Amino acid sequence: MRTRTASTVITLFGGVTNTILTIQVLAAWRSIKWEPESEWELSGDKWQVTGVKIIWALLSLYFASAAAVCFIGLHGVLKHKPSLVRFYRDYSIADFSFSAFFTALATYGAFLGPARVGICEELSRHPDLMRNLTEIGLNLENCELWLSRAVFVGLAVMFFIMVIRLHFLLAVSTYYSHLARHYPHHHQRSPSCTSSCIPSSSSSSSLPTHSLKDSNTSSTNSLPMQRILVLPKPAPGMASVGFNANPDLEPGVNVEMVYAPVPKHTLPKELQEQATEAWIPSSSSSSAMMGASMSMSMMPSASRTYHHRRHHHHRSSHSYSHTHAHAHTHAHAHTHRHRSSSREATGRIKLDIAPGEGLLAFRDDVKEL
Questions:
Q1: Environment class of residue 293 by beta-carbon count within 10 Å: exposed (0-12), middle (13-18) or buried (19+)?
Q2: What letter would DSSP give residue 240?
Q3: Which pLDDT belongs to residue 234?
Q4: Pair 292, 256: CB distance under 8 Å
Q5: For residue 254, what are the contacts with CB-CB under 8 A and spacing of at least 6?
């Protein structure tokens, strides 16, 4: 929390400071006399004036861009956006390196005698600027001495500023590391659905079917999809095609529903009209998760439960085993045993009869009439 507060203050202070400096540089632009007074000055100072204009324009652009980047960083800090904070941090690193190099280069040049003489001559050509600099003790007589002393003062000030900027940079880097740990997938959904993105059993009864489909859209939009048809509930006519509708099932009983693959042409016309179109991913790993959500969304509201354990994923994949030709052999064996038990329980009667034994037992004490 402290690093966030420090980063907020740093970016706000940088934005405001660079904005003020930009305004001051642009205001000083108007006070400088750019036009020469005679043709002689024009012939000798043309390139110098052009160079000063370029440097002044670059200086204005530098402060303006620094202000814009600081406000971008402030927005990233306030909105917890790691990408914007990282952009501000990278810009600060580059700016810090450039400032350190420029400070060293300017200090070396200021100690040279010809450089101080050239600066004083350039200032003498701008009386308006010299009139403003007179307030701080600079005139044509003490220009070189004043510049030599100003170099040491400027070096000390720049060293102090660089130390402060280094601490600011470390604070912003620390806050960015905090954001990268706690917001690794900002504005992105996790590729694998965990228990946090699966509705709980208490709240799933009030969710419509389309909301359950939307929760898995982002994780399945990159997988090939396959079209299936799902019936909303078992019907009495489904017993002939492998379903066993239990009319004695109470509404409050919590029971798992299984959706077995059935060819569409084997269903009666009225059941085909009731079928609902759905799309599932054809990948075995993703369709197991989608199958669980889809099968639970078609169940009665009182019996909707969401299980994200490993064996429940296997049960869901068994329900849609017709879409996975490459599924595990254990899934096929389990589905085959389940279907066999269903057929034996719904269509056959077994009697323990010995070979050659009749249907009715023969009794010796019964006499013929």
A1: buried
A2: G
A3: 60
A4: no
A5: 302, 303, 305
Adjacent-strand bridge partners of 279: 227
Q: What is the pLDDT of residues 124-172, one digit of tens each?
A: 777 777 777 777 777 877 888 888 888 888 888 988 999 999 999 999 9
Number of other CB atoms surrounding residue 328 within 10 Å: 13
Answer whether 0.85 is exceeded by the pTM.
Answer: no
* Chain segment 173-231, per-residue pLDDT in tens: 999 998 888 776 554 443 444 444 444 444 444 444 444 444 444 444 555 677 787 77
Query: According to the model, what pLDDT value does residue 18 have?
Result: 92
303 vs 255: CA distance, rounded Å: 6
Exposure of 243 in the CB half-sphere (CA atoms within 13 A): 21
Residues 6+ apart with CB under 8 A from 184: none
- φ/ψ of 198, rounded to 5, equals -105, 125
Sequence-separated (6 or more) residues with CB below 8 Å from residue 336:
none
- Alpha-carbon distances of 116 from 89, 109, 111, 112, rounded to whole Å: 36, 9, 8, 7
**Bridge partners (DSSP) listed for residue 278:** 228
Place of tokens 């254990």: 330
pLDDT digits (tens, 9 = 90+) for 346-369: 445 555 666 665 555 555 554 444
Residue 244 structure tokens: 């066993």
Return the bridge partners of 226, or none.
280
d(CA 352, CA 50) in angstroms, rounded, equals 113
281 strand-pairing partners: 225
Residue in 62, 66, 162, 32 with CA at minimum distance from that of residue 107: 162
Dist CA 199 CA 28 (whole Å): 63
Q: Give the number of other Cβ atoms within 10 Å of residue 32's Cβ.
A: 13
The CB density around residue 183, as the number of other CB atoms within 10 Å, is 14
Q: How far apart are CA 90 and CA 352, in angstroms?
A: 84
**Amino acid identity for residue 63 in this structure:** F
What's at 251, amino acid-wise?
P
DSSP lists the bridge partners of residue 27 as none
Read off the pLDDT of each residue in 267-293 and give the average, rounded to a whole number.
Answer: 63
Residues counted in the chain:
369
244 pLDDT more than 50: no
Top-ranked range on mean pLDDT: pick from 59-73, 116-130, 302-316, 351-365: 59-73
